[in-house]
Automatic annotation (TrEMBL), chains A, B, C, D:
One Gene Ontology term of the molecular function aspect: oxidoreductase activity
Top-level enzyme category: oxidoreductase
Protein name, per record: Scyllo-inositol 2-dehydrogenase (NAD(+))
Organism: Pseudomonas graminis
Source organism superkingdom: Bacteria
Keyword Oxidoreductase annotated: yes
InterPro entries: Gfo/Idh/MocA-like_OxRdtase_N, Gfo/Idh/MocA_oxidrdct_glycsds, GFO_IDH_MocA-like_dom, NAD(P)-bd_dom_sf
């Protein structure tokens, strides 16, 4: 809980869409849920639609609103700039905030090109501030347990990774075009979904050395809008598959698809070691599936439920089986960010790490285009 | 979102434990998430520990704090009193609030005896205010879907109900005594867990006509505290099972246990009709399992994921598969309460309905004690 | 494998329906799969339809055929009489075989009334021969593992049993009448399905002391045949539920229904102890679900796959995960029977035990009819 | 059922190991279960161990036995030669049988090299006889349903395939060397396990055009025997992953591993189309998981149970949910073979198709070795 003697941390949020509201809720809930090292202030909310900014600011508890995000960035009482705008705007906004010496919390993907991402990383390094990118799935307490098991050697030496992030919102040819179909906006199944999985793979297993991949545009044209007769040509990937070689020696497969019917948020993976196997599916985010060798006759995959034994969970629910939701992963992400701002060691995704995710995705894209293995070190 | 021209609704919250914080979060998140018919104000927070009340009020965004709950109840700017204190205190607090003409939002169970519950119901009726009791599991959007299917006849005529609420926190004889082991505090597996299931059964299928039951104290003594050598005699039920006859003709079974190992929040049920079957488990609160007759060769239980098609869900997540958590059910409960305060028809559990739940539990307790069938109408 | 020096065991089989063929296959496969203590001979096959008996005898490898079962029973080269005819005929056939001093292997249920069952048990006792009744689900190797865990104390003291056997072949009012709807033929959900579950409950947990129950005829009339306009009045139970008190102190619930949509062979149970929980579903007959207390942070229900570690499995498959089928449970049942004939201690269901199952079912029937608790000792 | 007027079909079986007995049982059970177009005779059984051959012949119902398989092959009353010996012997035995004009039923893999496989295919073509290779998993009735759905267009256009066959019997470095570790014996995870999955992929989706792959020897040495201190160098693949491009346009991933802990028979796949998705796991061989688009609000993956609606199932069990076992897939395989011998169109794996499986495996091996995409047409 907040005490009066704590330093103030002024938050400025840009964007009032679904993700903007998710950030607003997360900041509030982090304040109510955790003992933070700051007196957190929701200083300002910006949206190009000034009227909407004003209305949301009142409703979400922000002190003031702006129709021009640059005013928010230059506001001296804003210490942290949170960016939830369309992907194309991440670069100019983050660069301006870094230039102004502000900490930056940017939604994923970091940028719409590897070049941008590298420039942003360099700017962050120069600014010497805390940066974070919204790969919120990593903040799931049960993912924390998975990471602890892997790093603690409970699975033995890690030898395999199978990962797939599939959804079905572009499931057939009638699903209409959107900005997600444009490469210039970081669209496509690989960038939109796959990047979450690549971030997760790196979070749990570290660097990837080399990749081979295959991408496909299944529906080369889609209606301009739902039900429209106007068709737009599509060149972005509907599905991308890859082989991965990790620096730790593990081998495996990767998939991302936005047209696999039946899946709504199937960020899933299975990690095999010489002593056990674990698997996870974001569609059941409060569960980890674990097999441990060494229990002959009493062995079998078990379902571990999220619970207070895992850091972060107990702040929301007193007992296992009660379950966290998507929005609470966001609150945990914000908590980690604020801890980092307070100087406490942490494991969030900063701009440097997010750039590595972009680099890996770029390698996959190149491998698919050129139909050959690509070393990450060559990117 | 909140507009300035809306009438004010002043909330007073009593209790700062886990459930107190859950209420505080729920009020805030309801305000941020929904367009409410009120300008919601967190007016006052009360706790017998005045220092804690003050600290929590600051952290949770309440305007003032009280060490004496009666001050909160008599505060004219408080329109709604939320009660999250130990069960014994529900009665005096709710009665005082009703006496003062306030709307009341009381945690479950309504009271520690059927007599109290009846008195509270009568007082609520006389006061003519909105009352609600915290059976939050009913506010799960996917439970709303289940209710809609049942009432819309998708399962045909309902003929069976199997329900079980099991946890394992009292799983062995070393799990220590707590107030939950005292009948005077509405303890025991039936009251503590089973009442949730009875409320759910009534919510979905309506009145129960008659019950037969069996209760057992498996561990007749438990340590006074964890690890203590001092033993306390226990007479409360560790597990209770029952047969249910519903007024709609359905028959079935009921179980509640707090010592079934492996279960953490296993409020589960299966409802069978002449055209289909559905089942649910609170440990996977975002899923409904459904079988519909009439698809020969392509039939099978299917897993329906919570999603925006169900009322309430879309306010938290834009897409299915992203999942709500326990706390969001609380937010939905608060939303329904505020809607009711605004005069919008709703289906929340008011004092009259909560009294019926107590009555049903009382019938089960009597049936078990006297080893005979008991008609609810005789209670 | 069979050696020439082994004593001969002549098998006579009555009935050529599905279950007759299942027996024929089981005898043959037992011979091919196991080292038996006998030189097994398929001596004779009887069916009231003599032509069918002859044809099946040739196809199934029996030496001769009869249109009159009494000839088979009196054939001196027949040592073991297997009965797979309609329930009404179990009594006269088994009594004649016992009278002739033959071992008897009778399909379930043992008889169509408790009186018959008691007479058959007495006759078996007097004859001093080996008898078996076809509760084949108990011969599942993974059920053997469950029994071993329970008896070995791995679950601690057993405190709860929840069992349900549901199917849906009478799922709606258009499912036609059949002999299964007649009490005189041991019809109804309790006798037809529930008796399997009662046998299983006794097999795993032993005697039941007392029961309370509720039975219902959901569809009081059904078409005489599928699609017929002629309706027949039905008085048999479509569903029966009960509370069980076991002699070992465990309490629990029982259900049997033949109109729960979606279930095809849902003989399922969950057994709770002070140290763990196990559950099973016949629809996944090669799996056991187990939770063991005492692994904090690494606990969860696990799925144990049938495998060679369990007696009997390895005779069919060399590795776990390959799975036995329904018919192999029958082969295991026959193997146990032949072992018993060879004097090897075993745990099959003999007439005495099958009579106890009938007695328990009778108690449930009486408890439902009279709406009161019934002690088994009073039956 | 067999009639006297049917032509005789004399079966000669080579090998008396686990697979030999599985064949013997399958021939017998096919005879008892199905109306065959032949009078099936179990003529002869051969094993290099003549005493064992004699003993098994007596036990399994074969007319005579041989210590020399060539005698069996040249026996004029043998019309069909079944080969269940070690992989190295498939080639000489099958070639001799074809040379003698016999139909051949050979266990998988067809041969230990693509060259052998091609020679065998050519010999089969020249002999003009029926040949079959034991990819028994394809004969699962529920796989038949999957094939029917795919070919009938129920999933729309097929766009993706994810397949994995994992087991764990070589799960750690202490699992000893066996012949399965030798390339000359067609060892390794790809050949031993993966070939089943490749055969299944071809069975369901047809030709593969191109592959890229990655193979790894995780444990470069293993004990010579269990517990031995002597170590043997290992160069065979412990795990192999691949990208697949199907001729029908579908893309996907392939995996095979014999060291993924927890899996015992995890031949699994998921097939995505523009209208739906289906998945299967051999560890639950009686189930198909299906999602069909077009049921908004009532959609979700469903579990379809094997049942009499699927060809073949009803011959073993009268009702769904009763389940077939591994050995019954073998019986179904034998049935299909005998139907083919009787001139009835069928879809079994003949030598030509089995050669294509070897060719595909060879392409994967080459792609992994040379780290490049390989077109199947170049093999």
């Amino acid at each position: 809980m907040r005490g009066n003697s704590l330093p103030e941390l002024g938050v400025g949020l840009i964007g009032t869409g679904f993700m903007g509201r998710a950030h607003a809720l997360a900041f509030h809930n982090a304040r109510t849920t955790f003992d933070l090292p700051f007196n957190l202030k929701l200083v300002a909310l910006a949206d190009a639609d000034a009227a909407r900014a004003e209305k949301c600011a009142a409703s979400w508890g922000f002190g003031r609103s702006h129709g021009d995000w640059q005013q928010l960035v230059s506001d001296p009482s804003v210490n942290l700039v949170a960016i939830t705008t369309p992907n194309l705007l991440h670069f100019p906004m983050a660069m301006a905030a870094l230039e102004a010496g502000k900490a930056v919390y940017c939604e994923k993907p970091l940028a719409v090109s590897l070049e941008q991402a590298r420039e942003m990383q360099a700017a962050a390094l120069k600014a010497g501030v805390v940066t974070r990118v919204g790969y919120n799935y990593q903040h799931n307490p049960i993912i924390g347990l998975a990471k602890q098991m892997i790093e603690g050697g409970e699975l033995g030496r890690i030898v395999s990774f199978q990962g797939e992030f599939s959804e079905d919102f572009m499931g057939n040819g009638l699903s209409p075009w959107s900005w997600r179909c444009e490469e210039a906006h970081a669209g496509g199944a690989l960038a939109d979904l796959g990047s979450h999985l690549l971030a997760m793979a790196r979070y749990l297993l570290g660097d990837v050395d080399a990749v081979c991949a295959d991408s496909q545009t299944v529906h080369p044209q889609r209606p301009a809008t739902r039900g429209s007769e106007e068709q737009r040509a599509i060149s972005i990937d509907d599905q991308t598959y890859a082989l991965l070689r990790f620096a730790n020696g593990a081998r495996g497969t990767f998939g991302s698809s936005w047209l696999k019917h039946g899946y709504k948020n199937h960020l899933s993976f299975e990690i095999g070691g010489t002593e056990g196997t674990l698997s996870f599916d974001q569609e059941r985010l409060n569960e980890l599936r674990l097999y441990r060798a060494g229990f002959p006759g009493r062995d079998g995959f078990q379902r571990i439920l999220a619970g207070p034994a895992q850091p972060g969970y107990a702040s929301f629910c007193p007992a296992p089986g009660h379950q966290l939701g998507y929005n609470e992963l966001k609150t945990l992400e914000v908590h980690e960010l604020i801890q980092a701002l307070g100087g406490q060691g942490s494991n969030g995704t900063d701009f440097a790490e997010a750039m590595e995710v972009e680099r890996l995705a770029t390698a996959i894209r190149m491998a698919a285009k050129e139909m050959r293995w690509v070393s990450i070190s060559d990117i």
